[in-house]
Design goal:
The protein has 735 residues and is mostly beta strands. 35% of the residues are buried.
């Protein structure tokens, strides 16, 4: 089987080198120019485009196809018109569909929807002409909203929220979309008399049934619509002078907590609470955010994971105050090493521990086309389990050239002394420098160097990262290096392992073979990972060779992967995945993978993944399967199942079988009224968890939440049970 897989991989690479279409054309020296027109009357945002002002604009129709192939005739053309008045900029869109209403693909009506599973139209704006930053406003034929910040076409922040409106209308020939984006929701420089206002703008559309993606202006297939060096120049605008606008968002909350052991009530808590956030645009470039008595009760819960690897698992941030502008901090790390990770704030004792209240927090961001200056400070309240603490982080980024930058960051955490726990005051500091370099549009380089200084251990540690990659229409090649010393201790950050140096190199071809008419894209390739001690380079830890000769998307939008992963392990520490103690020594084994997903945009879809092979001194078989049913966009149901079966593993040659069941249900009256239900049961710890959340966006970005969380050990005869009820109302007003 291995010989066959290597043969398929070789054939794929051969075809990649034989392909002649390497058209990764550079950005234009003179951008395409488009024009906005002043509206003479009132524009009603209803998705109809029936005001006479729309007829006086110049339609933008010269879209460029990037999927399923670059260039050629567009099957589903689009048209965009642009108006403005004293308060808003308006975009009117008509998206022609070859099947009309029948061609619409929609999975659910959530606000921040999955852009790869639905019909989407998006607008990207670089109002300060940085070429390195864009805000994106996206919608679907049903009027879902998604707003995104993007940094260097590299870091994507989907949790940023802005005040704007969109309405849509579906017709027998396609759909209309009408956007109204307030000037107050866009950061731009103060206009200078006599100098015309010019913004960078791109558009994109995904017609999901054909997986046809089109963009305006022309952007190579290997880059996204956020590569703003290719942006069109929007002229004709008459924008109001940026005002020091203020946005306030108070909230009121009631929370009830109850904990039981068996049928015995251990404790309960009734907790009414008020607080809020304030956003003050001090200048066109500078924004100050304040949070008082912060609460994140409505945030999504983490899903359980059964970890069989030797590395720590990274769980993403889900709290809104820390999510906005998070891309500014993200450039100084990723999910392997992060000098700053906001999830360490608001937790007692340790990462991912029990929540600790936040009294007050502030965030300052000052961005222009040349540099970014940012700072964050938070005060965490003392609890019975942990002392109070102060968190602070400062960030500076200097842009140079069109797509290059250099950055520096400092984090500081100070924990108070707490006599009841015999804890003395201590502090932790990290100092980091990083950079992003794009010498050519196809080549990306980035680096990070960081040091930590910890008062508790009186030690200093080091970490770093280097990345070099080339991404074209026909291939990807890359190299990554990480190193983390034993003493590197970022109390405000995250590391996947200490005392390690990690190398990975490899790539894949990007094929669109004409001799396989049922294949849309085929990416055969391989990556090699090598781990060794940081202190002792000769002390090998682990190596993996991930070979994927079949990594293929079909014309019907389904996906198939066939791969193998030879692995070499040196276990020289106490290691017991899921409680199975592994004897120290060297191991070599191979895991195989078969994975298939049907078209996720259809009403009914499914997925299956089967991993099999050896595992240390035993055998591992894993199955992951999922079903999704969305008969209409208002209803979406998911059922997922994961099974890990381990045989004769570890010192005792033990067997272990774990099951993880997950079910979700989402009901939506419209994009603004939603009910979601989540249930998960893990047989490993015999724990089941319910999360039920109702949300109503009764005004733009003003919400009513009702949330129920229930966690119990041993479902049929609960040994421990924790129940939480939350009701919360927020109100947002922009002045």
């Amino acid at each position: 089987m291995q010989r066959l897989l290597f043969l398929i991989l070789w054939l794929g690479v051969w075809e990649a080198t034989a392909q002649q279409n390497t058209d990764n054309f550079p950005p234009p020296e003179t951008p395409v120019t488009i024009k906005a027109f002043r509206a003479k009357g009132t524009i009603t945002v209803d998705g109809r485009l029936d005001e006479s002002d729309w007829d006086l604009t110049q339609p933008i129709t010269e879209f460029f196809r990037v999927e399923p192939v670059q260039g050629g005739t567009i099957k589903n053309p689009s048209e965009v018109r642009i108006l403005f008045d004293d308060k808003n900029i308006y975009f009117g869109v008509f998206a022609l569909d070859s099947l009309g209403k029948k061609g619409v693909r929609m999975q659910d009506l959530s606000r921040d929807f999955n852009g790869l599973e639905n019909d989407v139209f998006g607008i990207q704006i670089d109002a300060q002409n940085t070429k390195q930053y864009a805000v994106s406003f996206q919608t679907t034929p049903y009027g879902n909203q998604q707003d995104v910040q993007n940094f260097n076409d590299n870091i994507r922040d989907e949790d940023w929220n802005a005040l704007w409106r969109v309405r849509t209308q579906r017709t027998d020939s396609g759909y209309y979309a009408e956007f109204a984006i307030p000037f107050k929701s866009i950061r731009y420089d103060k206009p200078v008399e006599g100098i015309p206002v010019e913004w960078g703008v791109t558009f994109f559309r995904l017609a999901r049934k054909d997986y046809e993606k089109t963009v305006f202006p022309d952007i190579p297939q290997s880059f996204s619509e956020n590569r703003m060096t290719y942006a069109a120049k929007l002229t004709g605008l008459e924008v109001p002078p940026p005002s020091a606008n203020i946005r306030i968002e108070p909230y009121a909350l009631y929370q009830y907590d109850e904990n039981k052991e068996g049928s015995v009530l251990v404790d309960k808590l009734n907790n009414p609470k008020i607080g809020g956030d304030v956003k003050w645009a001090i200048s066109p470039n500078a924004v100050l955010d304040l949070t008082i008595n912060t609460d994140f009760a409505q945030a999504d819960v983490d899903q359980a994971v059964n970890n069989l690897e030797r590395f720590n698992i990274f769980f993403p941030e889900r709290r809104q105050f820390f999510l906005e502008n998070s891309g500014i901090w993200a450039g100084a790390g990723n999910n392997f090493v992060r000098p700053f990770f906001s999830r360490t704030i608001g937790l007692s004792n340790a990462f991912n521990a029990a929540p600790a209240p936040l009294d007050v927090g502030a965030r300052y961001t000052d961005r222009n086309e040349n540099r970014t200056l940012a700072a964050l400070a938070v005060r965490q309240r003392e609890t019975d389990d942990s002392p109070g603490a102060i968190f602070g982080v400062g960030r500076y980024i200097q842009n140079y050239g069109q797509e290059n930058n250099f950055g520096a960051m400092v984090t500081y955490r100070r924990d108070d002394g707490l006599g009841s726990l015999d804890l003395e005051s201590q502090n932790n500091t990290t100092i980091s420098v990083d950079g992003f370099i794009r010498p050519k549009s196809e080549i990306t380089l980035s680096y990070l160097l960081s040091t930590s200084i910890d008062s508790e251990t009186d030690s200093q540690g080091y970490s770093g990262r280097l990345f070099a990659g080339a991404f074209t229409n026909n291939y990807y090649l890359g190299y990554v290096n990480y190193f983390i010393s034993e003493n590197y201790n970022p109390d405000m950050g995250f590391v996947f392992q200490k005392d390690v140096m990690y190398h990975t190199t490899g790539g894949y071809a990007i094929l669109r073979p004409k001799w396989l008419p049922f294949v849309r894209r085929w990416d055969p390739g391989a990556f090699f990972d090598y781990f060794h001690d940081f202190e002792d380079f000769g002390n090998f830890q682990q190596a993996r060779l991930y070979i994927f000769p079949i990594f293929t998307w079909f014309k019907d939008n389904s996906f198939l992967e066939v791969s193998l992963t030879p692995t070499w392990q040196n276990i020289n520490f106490n290691f017991a995945p899921l409680g199975l103690e592994i004897e120290e020594g060297r191991y070599s084994y191979t895991q195989y993978r078969l994975r298939y997903n049907s078209d996720r945009s259809k009403k009914f879809s499914g997925s299956i993944q089967y991993d099999f092979g050896n595992f240390y001194n035993g055998i591992r078989n894993s199955v992951m399967a999922g079903l999704r049913y969305a008969p209409i966009p208002h209803i979406a149901m998911n059922i997922d199942y994961e099974n890990n079966n381990l045989n004769s593993v570890g010192i005792l040659s033990e067997d272990l079988n774990t099951d993880l069941y997950t079910g979700t249900l989402r009901l939506a009256l419209n994009p603004r009224v939603q009910l979601s239900t989540f249930y998960q049961y893990n047989s490993f710890d015999e724990q089941g968890r319910w999360n039920v959340r109702f949300s109503w966006e009764y005004m733009p970005l003003s919400f009513i939440y009702v949330v129920l969380n229930d966690t119990q050990t041993d479902f049929f005869d609960p040994v421990q049970r924790s129940t939480q009820f939350i009701s919360k109302i927020t109100f947002l007003k922009q002045f």
